[in-house]
Amino acid sequence: MPGVFDRLNKEIENKQKEGGITPLDLVELSPTLRKIMKLMLRELQMTYPRLREVMDAMPEAERLTPNSLDEALASLTEQFWLIRIGEKEKAIYKVNLKRKSGSTLANGIWSSLDQKLKK
Amino acid sequence: MSKGKIVSIHSFRGGTGKSNTTANLAAQVALTGKRVGVVDTDIQSPGIHVLFGLDETKMGKTLNDFLHDKASIREVGFQVGENTGDAEGRAKLAGKNLWLFPSSIRGREISQILKEGIDFNRLNEGLQSTITEFDLDYLFIDTHPGLNEETLLSIATSDILIIILRPDNQDIQGTSVTVDIARSLDVPNLLLMVNKALPKYDFQTIKNDIESKFNAPVAGILPLSFDLADNASQDLFSLKYPDHAWSTALRGVASAILALE
Hints:
- Chain A is about 55% helix and about 10% strand.
- Chain A has helices at about 5-15, 25-30, 30-45, 50-55, 65-80, 105-119, and strands at about 45, 80-85, 90-95.
- In chain A, strand 2 (about 80-85) and strand 3 (about 90-95) form a beta hairpin.
- Chain A has a single domain (about 5-120), classed as Orthogonal Bundle (Arc Repressor Mutant, subunit A), CATH 1.10.10.10.
- By secondary structure, chain A is mostly helical.
- Chain A starts with a helix and ends with a helix.
- The longest helix of chain B is centred in the C-terminal third of the chain and has 16 residues, at about 170-185.
- Chain B has helices at about 20-30, 65, 75, 105-115, 120-135, 150-155, 170-185, 205-215, 225-230, 235-240, 245-260; strands at about 5-10, 35-40, 80, 100, 140, 160-165, 190-195, 220-225.
- In chain B, strand 6 (about 160-165), helix 7 and strand 7 form a beta-alpha-beta unit.
- Chain B has an 8-stranded mixed sheet with strand order 3-4-2-5-1-6-7-8, with helices on both faces.
- Chain B is globular, with a radius of gyration of 17 Å.
- Classes of the chains: A mainly alpha, B alpha/beta.
- The interface between A and B is medium-sized, with 31 and 27 residues.
């Protein structure tokens, strides 16, 4: 019988299929959003209280106010660049990168190559 | 925050000596007692495994297996210090904490990646997990030359980015692009490394010119070396010939990385 962890993971996996940010999009982000995304890329997933803790520990010039953090998280979640599981203080955020698409070459080319490589 | 630092090694063009430099830098840092990982994210044209003495017969699980959920990142890590073989240079790594996370060199697996694309959530999870699972101090990422999405991802998550260029106008123009991207991605530490500089040039002049052009520090100028070419990636050159000018300059770059702690 699946536990809470398995169910949460399943929920995250389903949401991940709905979109995601590309590495190129990161270049175009505002400094505030990029700061959060870069942190999330390193940490993979964080609880909301942990995010607040990390922000509070940053040098004053780099720190986001709780309001700016909440606004940034809402914006990133809305675009499915972050996935949120749970609400408010209990929320867990996870980064969502868009899959790199495969080659657009005709399928026949790949099956032919596959056959050759099998030999 | 994870304690390990990510060091991405990049060059805009191929043939700059990126893999050779990455392998030797990682080895030099491991020799100081640090726990070091090397990931080959050049999935389309992997090569760094050769410098660590791996070939198709010895290669176990790869990054490709991890990306396809056929292996854990722990299974992919190849303990270089326990498998140094009989190469004179690599033998100095015996007992050191250095792991290689190779990409597959099987044609079918490379073509599978090209055909199906890459799950970047999984790739990023793999990169970050190497640090936590192996308690790494440094993770070196050997990237694909030029700019592709895997490279941008590794640059975006780097603490230190080293851009390798030759003193050649094509390289210099390409490096401008990478430097711009790195600055747009707020990479905390950007270092340049010049490789294959003709010994007849004045290295201090090259250093001054490049630093002034890119407004970034040059961590080392490594000479063009026939001895290095003669080594033919059979061994880690800076370990086999520690007194060679190329090795001395490379150790300077390793020191620059360690100084950024």
